[in-house]
């Protein structure tokens, strides 16, 4: 849809998402693969949530945060994949301007802070075990989650408001399967300097600070673990952190690649690949990573699934 501004240019109110592939045969393959990925992701994360809720042994701060991460994973893949599947079925590739941004950045921002809270939890558990129960009480857990949601909401709202100051007058095509800030900046016919500055500042606050907290926490954790004389004790301590470090590496690795390429004029297949990793692969892998590397989760999942 387009609106005439009366000054010889047309302002866009909706965009066309070109998607991952153009061939109808390949679109069928993409539909099946993404539907399968969505079902696996939702099913895996719901299973993790069920295990945490049903097993009293997992009613600890670490699994409280893991449960919240599972909710975020379901949300992240739900705001991108089902709309894409619907467009493939209906052959309608348009998306409204208003539907483009808010919820994706809300959930991604929450992910940043939640991963930092999980690192802080591991720091307290390993480096401050005597005061752990006090410093990570249920009240503090809830405060950390509420503050994280508040910061993520502020970030998403800020980007939505600053994006509303841009004018989009063509081309209306976005070479991606969902719209995000870099893609929208590329097709704006007004200056995006302020928006890019806001994105840089928000990126430092929303991602840079949590990364610094995560790195600081794990420096202390590594130092504490290396002081453990028992090899078995070291292995157990590191195993509780391995899953989280893997998830952090995947999340921030793809995120940095995606948002550090704002100067690129053309969207590429690499951008689409990173987008698939961010919105589909990561949420699908997270429950697998935690269940494979955690014997407690494995035991509870086995009992939940087989009823023993």
In short:
With 308 residues, this protein is mostly helical. The chain is built from 11 helices and 5 strands, in the order βββαααβαααβααααα. The longest helix has 34 residues, at 193-226.
Describe the structure.
It is a single chain. The protein has 308 residues and is mainly alpha-helical. The chain has one domain: Rhopdopsin 7-helix transmembrane proteins (Up-down Bundle). It is built from 11 helices and 5 strands. The radius of gyration is 21 Å and the shape is globular.
> Taking Cα atoms only, what radius of gyration do you get, to the nearest Å?
21 Å
Query: Please, how many helices?
Result: 11
Instruction: Name the shape in a single word.
Output: globular
CATH architecture: Up-down Bundle
Question: Care to count the β-strands?
Answer: 5
Q: What is the CATH superfamily?
A: Rhodopsin 7-helix transmembrane proteins
Q: Give the SSE order as H and E letters.
A: EEEHHHEHHHEHHHHH
Overall tally of domains: 1
Distance between the termini: 56 Å
Strand content: under 5%
Class based on secondary structure composition and strand pairing: mainly alpha
Question: Which residues form runs of ≥5 with pLDDT under 50?
Answer: 1-10
Strand adjacency order, main sheet: 4-3-5
SSE blueprint:
Elements: E1 2-4, E2 10-12, E3 14-17, H1 24-54, H2 61-78, H3 81-90, E4 94-96, H4 102-127, H5 132-135, H6 138-163, E5 173-174, H7 181-186, H8 193-226, H9 231-259, H10 269-292, H11 295-306
Helix pairs in contact: 1-2, 1-3, 1-10, 1-11, 2-4, 2-10, 4-6, 4-8, 4-9, 6-8, 8-9, 9-10
């Amino acid at each position: 849809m387009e609106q005439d501004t009366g000054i010889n240019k047309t302002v866009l109110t909706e965009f066309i998402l070109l998607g991952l592939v153009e061939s109808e045969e390949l679109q069928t393959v993409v539909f099946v693969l993404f539907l399968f990925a969505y079902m696996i992701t939702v099913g895996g994360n719901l299973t993790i949530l069920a295990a945490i809720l049903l097993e009293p042994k997992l009613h600890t701060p670490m699994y409280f945060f893991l449960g919240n991460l599972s909710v975020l994973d379901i949300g992240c893949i739900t705001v991108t994949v089902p709309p894409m599947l619907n467009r493939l079925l209906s052959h309608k590739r348009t998306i409204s301007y208003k539907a483009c941004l808010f919820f994706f950045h809300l959930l991604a921002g929450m992910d940043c802070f939640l991963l930092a809270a999980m690192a802080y939890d591991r720091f307290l558990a390993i480096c401050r075990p005597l005061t752990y129960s006090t410093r990570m009480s249920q009240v503090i857990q809830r405060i950390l989650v509420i503050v994280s949601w508040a910061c993520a909401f502020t970030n998403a709202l800020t980007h939505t408001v600053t994006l509303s100051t841009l004018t989009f007058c063509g081309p209306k095509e976005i070479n991606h399967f969902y719209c995000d800030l870099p893609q929208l900046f590329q097709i704006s016919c007004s200056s995006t300097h302020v928006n890019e500055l806001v994105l840089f500042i928000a990126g430092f606050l929303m991602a840079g600070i949590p990364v610094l907290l995560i790195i600081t926490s794990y420096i202390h954790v590594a130092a504490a673990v290396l002081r453990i004389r028992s090899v078995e004790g070291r292995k157990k301590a590191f195993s509780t952190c391995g899953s989280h470090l893997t998830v952090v590496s995947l999340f921030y690795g793809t995120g940095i690649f995606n948002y550090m390429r704002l100067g690129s004029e053309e969207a590429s297949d690499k951008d689409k690949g990173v987008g698939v990793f961010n919105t589909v692969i990561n949420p699908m892998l997270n429950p697998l990573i935690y269940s494979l590397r955690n014997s407690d989760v494995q035991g509870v999942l086995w009992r939940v699934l087989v009823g023993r």
